[in-house]
Amino acid sequence: MKKVITYGTYDLLHVGHINLLRRAKELGDYLIVGLSTDEFNAGKHKEAYHTYEDRKIILESIKYVDEVIPEATWEQKIDDVVNNKVDIFVMGDDWKGKFDFLKDYCEVIYLPRTAGISTTKIKTDLHG
Ligand code: C2G
User: Fold this and answer.
1) Distance CA 18, CA 63 (A)
2) Are 37 and 119 in contact (CB under 8 A)?
3) Distance between CA atoms of 93 and 98, rounded to whole angstroms?
4) How far is the C-alpha of 119 from the C-alpha of 16, rounded, in Å?
5) pLDDT category, 38, cuts 50, 70, 90?
6) Closest CA to 36 of 21, 53, 19
7) Ligand 1 atom 16: the closest Cα is on which residue?
8) pLDDT tens-digit series, residues 76-122
9) Ligand 1 midpoint to CA 47 (Å)
10) Strand ranges for 29-103 from DSSP E
11) 37 vs 42, 64, 120, CA distance in Å?
């Protein structure tokens, strides 16, 4: 069984998120999502609209997602890959190069982002 992992905040779910999750799942048989906790987001200077618990429930309802684990630190990725016997790490290419240190432990793939959509854009557009 080929296991894939990806990470993110997944707030205000949109088609860019779904496109990433679908393509990540297509690379293997089992997709784990490391979901940023509210505390970790504070460290990213990001504040999610939905709580971690709600973002987890939403992600777990997506057919491409097999498991959701908390992303609480930048340093946990190597342990996550090793402990979960992950074969492929996937991120959108806005992160290109940032996680190449994982190449010692698994395949690292950066996928093209979906243009024209982001959580920030949604918030800005809604503010009128
Ligand atoms: N994404 C995408 N296209 C978009 C928007 C997002 O492909 N238009 C991808 C991002 O590249 C990322 C995933 O969707 O792979 C989740 O995006 P975010 O929730 O914004 O994740 P981010 O805040 O970048 O957190 O340790 C890594 C971080 O947790 C990633």
Assistant:
1) 10
2) no
3) 9
4) 9
5) very high
6) 53
7) 8
8) 999 999 999 999 999 999 999 999 999 999 999 999 999 999 999 99
9) 14
10) 30-36, 67-71, 88-92
11) 9, 21, 18
Any residues with Cβ below 6 Å from ligand 1, and which? 6-10, 16-17, 20, 36, 71, 91-92, 94, 113-114, 117-118
Please report the atom of ligand 1 found closest to the CA of residue 40.
29
Residue owning the nearest CA to atom 17 of ligand 1: 8
The 8-class DSSP code of residue 12 comes to S
- Catalogue the active-site residues: 44, 46
Q: Around Cβ 108, how many Cβ atoms within 10 Å?
A: 20
- Determine if the pTM surpasses 0.90: yes
How many residues are there in the chain? 128
Residues whose CB is less than 8 angstroms from the CB of residue 48 and which lie 6 or more positions away in sequence, other chains included: 9, 11, 36, 38, 41, 55
- Share the mean pLDDT of the chain: 97
Ligand 1 centroid, distance to 31 Cα (angstroms): 15
